[in-house]
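Next comes the chain:
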Amino acid sequence: MRAWAWMLGGMIVWAVHFFAVYIVASVFLTTNTARILTVVMTLACLAADGWLIARLRGVGSSGDDPFRDWMRWIALTGAGLSMIAVLWQGLPALIV
């Protein structure tokens, strides 16, 4: 179960960011509060993705277990895609 949490960590962060930004946009509409909350949530999720990537890169390659290396690669790719998606979703808050 722990391996699934690592492999889906980036996608979980992305989903949390997506729903949080959607809720903020629905409740506060086009106010400055919505922009500030979106930027704060975007920075928090980027920090979570950064932590996840740093943690996964620190594990290193085992070499003798190709399946474990593949799982690590999937987790790193998911976290990288999550960073791009979080940036893309947070970008409209920076545009006036």
Observations:
- The two ends are 43 Å apart (CA to CA).
- The mean pLDDT is 88.
- The longest helix spans residues 66-94.
- The helical segments are 2-7, 9-28, 32-59, 66-94.
